[in-house]
Design brief:
Elements: E1 5-11, E2 15-20, E3 25-29, H1 36-39, H2 45-48, E4 52-53, E5 59-60, E6 66-67, H3 69-77, H4 87-90, H5 109-116
Antiparallel strand pairs: 1-2, 2-3, 4-5, 5-6
Length: about 140
């Protein structure tokens, strides 16, 4: 069952105090995450303070953005972030027709940068919500 936010309170410097239905609670720092067309309006502190919890237990604002409750819960509980299923993850393990040793491929420079770059995530934000009205 997906955790549900039961209470949210805006704090200074674009932070939120969030409480979940299972007792997990804490502060989420969004100061470095409010970019892009959807989240830029939240840079106005008056708009940011309009945060609320919707009927589905997600943190949201009247102008449309919402935050993924499962990602916030994982961050506050110190758990690994939730995994999004992919087609490869849904397939059973398949053994190649030929079992031969292959030399490991060297990752491209772009891939190396992704792998070895900083792994700091302040808060995963979901800009897609099936509950938003897109028009």
């Amino acid at each position: 069952m997906m955790p549900r936010v039961v209470k949210v309170a805006p704090l200074p410097k674009y932070r939120l105090h969030v409480e979940f239905d299972d007792g997990v609670a804490g502060t989420i720092d969004l100061s470095g995450e409010l970019d892009g067309e959807v989240f830029q309006p939240l840079r106005d502190e008056a708009v940011f303070r309009q945060v609320t919890v919707d009927e589905f237990g997600a943190v949201c604002w009247p102008n449309g953005p919402d935050l993924a409750p499962d990602a916030m819960h994982s961050e506050l509980a110190g758990e690994p972030p939730p995994q999004i299923p992919t087609a490869a993850a849904e397939r059973p393990n398949v053994t190649p027709a030929r079992n031969r040793e292959r030399a490991p491929r060297k990752p491209s420079t772009a891939r190396q940068a992704r792998i070895t770059g900083p792994q700091v995530i302040r808060h995963p934000i979901s800009i897609y919500s099936p509950f938003l009205q897109h028009g």
